[in-house]
Amino acid sequence: MTIRERIEADEKECLSPYAALSMYSRGRDKEEEPCDIRPVYQRDRDRILHSKAFRRLKDKTQVFLTPDGDHYRTRLTHTLEVSQNARTIAKALRLNEDLVEAIALGHDIGHTPFGHAGERALNRVCPYGFEHNVQSVRTVELLEKDGQGLNLTFEVRDGILNHQTVGEPQTLEGKIVRFSDKIAYMHHDMDDAIRAGILIDLDIPREIGDVLGYTTGERLDSFIHDIVINSTGKNDIVMSEEVAAAMKKLRAFMFERVYQSPIAKAEEGKAEALMETLYDYYLYHIDKLPGEYIRLMDKGEPKEKVVCDYVGAMTDRFAIATYEEIYIPKSWHG
What we know:
The chain is mostly helical and about 325 residues long. The protein is about 60% helix and about 0% strand. The radius of gyration is 21 Å and the shape is flat.
């Protein structure tokens, strides 16, 4: 018996009957020889962690564009917090931690620079549209490894695709990540808003605070405990009605006071204009794209999608530098 087979046997014996077991995965699009040490979801987690797209998340905006401070969240730290929340819930419910971690680490891997401002811009100008969850799947299926993709399992790709509210993941592990994403961004965006001076803890309405708590730590604790308590022994991941209603009110509060605040949105118009300008530039200067993207078009991918692939993959810093390189005159030295 290999190490992998022993781990798979342990999963079958110890995990919940509702867990997605590694041995029963629906598999990959391209068949591969199994690893003798790692089950399939652990292998997927490792592939995502070592991908270029994952590393780029460290220089992509979460909410506050190019913040002046070391402790504001980036898309990478958001991803790590989603993963931590998801693993805590999965462990408590005896579900597959490797699967939730793989989905969590990959869920935003296709996100644009400048947060949702960048996503809105590309969705507006590209005739095929642009949604970061769809782009995350495209990234792991096609764009990574010079057009080869990462060849991940169905369950991981399904969880990545369906991590947003409108999605319906086919595994409980995917449902955990969908909840964990919302919990993470409301938790850390509130924390960052307090750091930025947009909010203080006492701004939270009593109808929310009395249910979830008045500090970021209390709210995080409330969310996770509520999900674990209400999902134990069930073939579903759910919250109590009271906490679900409070979460909905908290999200509305965050949109009103943070996401649509003049401070958080001050630079978004510039970011959207920059993204649209770069899209238009590369659409009419296809030859300026790196070779790996040219090869995608040689395989039949539409140029509009490929330009989105390139511009959407940029970090905030690289997008700004590229714009300056193309459009900002340089000093002349004789």
